[in-house]
Amino acid sequence: MSFFSPLTEAVLSRARADPAFRQKLLQQSLDVLLDRLQRERQIPRSVTAKHAQMREGVTLALRLAELILTAAPIPER
């Protein structure tokens, strides 16, 4: 997964009301972010800017992972 579509108010509203959907949305966002970080690592650019951007991306990835782990568990079907 490499494409990230903007979130609409309807999607955010559904995520607030539906824990399973929220979990899926968080996981998809983490997958997209990790994919982008991996691709960025392979593109030569300004070292200073790249390091700051990579650090910011990793911090965001960790925050998303924390949200996924602390979200209400999805009941087995």
What does this 3D model show about the protein?
Helices cover 73% and strands 0% of the residues. The mean pLDDT is 83. The chain has one domain. With 77 residues, the protein is mostly helical. It is elongated and about 40 Å long.
Oligomer: single chain
Count of individual domains: 1
Q: Quick one: biggest sheet?
A: none
Number of H- or I-type helical stretches: 3
Provide the residue-averaged pLDDT.
Answer: 83
Give the proportion of residues in helices: over 70%
Shape: elongated
- Structural class of the secondary structure composition? mainly alpha
Strand content: under 5%
**N- to C-terminal distance:** 26 Å
Elements, N to C (H/E): HHH
Low-pLDDT segments, ≥5 res: none
Q: What is the number of E strands?
A: 0
Q: What is the radius of gyration computed over CA atoms, rounded to a whole number of angstroms?
A: 15 Å
Question: Care to give the gist of this entry?
Answer:
73% of the residues lie in helices and 0% in strands. By secondary structure, it is mainly α.
Give short descriptive properties of this protein.
single chain; 77 residues; mainly alpha; 0% strand; elongated
Which helices and strands, and how do they pair?
Elements: H1 9-17, H2 19-41, H3 47-70
